[in-house]
Amino acid sequence: MSALIEAASPHVMNTYGRLPIALERGQGCRVWDVNGKEYLDALGGIAVNTLGHNHPKLVPALQEQIAKLIHCSNYYHVPGQEQLAAQLVELSGMSNVFFCNSGLEANEAALKIARKFGVDKGIAKPQIVVYEKAFHGRSIATMSATGNPKIHSGFGPLVEGFIRVPLNDIDAIRQATEGNPDVVAVFFETIQGEGGINPMRAEYLRQLRALCDERGWLMMIDEVQCGMGRTGKWFAHQWAGIVPDVMPLAKGLGSGVPVGAVVAGPRAANVLQPGNHGTTFGGNPLAMRAGIETIRIMQEEGLLENAARVGAHLKAALQNALGHLPGVKEIRGQGLMLGIELDRPCGPLLGRAAEAGLLMSVTADSVIRLVPALILTSAEADEIVARLAPLVQAFLAE
Ligand SMILES: Cc1ncc(COP(=O)(O)O)c(C=O)c1O
After folding, report:
1. Is 235 among the residues known to form the active site?
2. Cα 141 to the chain's mean position, in Å?
3. Fewer Cβ atoms within 10 Å of its own Cβ: the N or the C terminal residue of the chain?
4. What SS3 state is found at 205?
5. Pair 234, 92: CB distance under 8 Å
6. pTM reported for the whole predicted model
7. What is the pLDDT of residues 93-112, one digit of tens each?
């Protein structure tokens, strides 16, 4: 461990189980640590670095913006908000956007929209359907919506008003909400990220859309991790041909600059009125420029198609190299959001992969997660497999 890393730890709160690595710079899908060691980055800052590192079009645009105006305040109009909102509206088929700074903030805003949507209809104690294994953030409310008891532990009492159901089971949600007039919304990830790369089936999403319409519920889809082109469409739910009423976004939207957004369709767009919600930093000119340029560059460089094509290549190569091993339960996911589920906890693989020059993550204890930048090439995908497969083989043979 370098002196720099040791010196960094005593004053930073001990909230992460960190690897003994400090990254210094990046280029494309590669990063280098303070000791000059190179890594292939299959984590992308946990699905954040859409354009990779030091993108030649993004960096000058951000530099220009920083020199012009970083932050003002929402006392004033921010033209970048209108521009980024117009892009998101066009890509989503929805109608209005609220800007914030992170995934949990976007989800908090969505939960507030759902509650007020209910209260405006005369429902005093609105309830929201959420899912097993879901992850929506670490604030008190988004943590309560999260379906992982480990994350709740030590932070009770949880926020009330959530009904939890299993994934992909339309009868279960019908039963859980039977005769309950207080339900106002359903809230879920199209592909659960932290929960272990668990996709909602397209047919289930269509049934759920119909159920929301039948019951007058808001369909709220947390696309914080699976959205922004990662699966090969702008938003993962678009594979099912549905449109949600509320869609929180963050992570990949700013390609590394913190920015969150809640996109709303006509049923939800006017729920929040002046004084109901706000944020100091949300929608600042720098964050808006990051979002605008990220989308523009993605379009220019065909990154949706790239995510779909290289993702399919990566999945097939993983299947080929690992699919036959008895300890590999499933290789799943779509585009550049892939998970390899093993039959045992595999946390130690994180450090071993880093030693072998590969950054990735392990989630839900036993799922190796790959969420690289959307600029990944097929050659880089092959390199991921070449570095990862021997480690997994050796681990399973222990
Ligand atoms: C689906 C989903 N929602 C919300 C969040 C929380 O986002 P943030 O860490 O930006 O608050 C995450 C983070 O992993 C996520 O994956």
Report:
1. no
2. 18
3. C
4. helix
5. yes
6. 0.97
7. 999 999 999 999 999 999 99
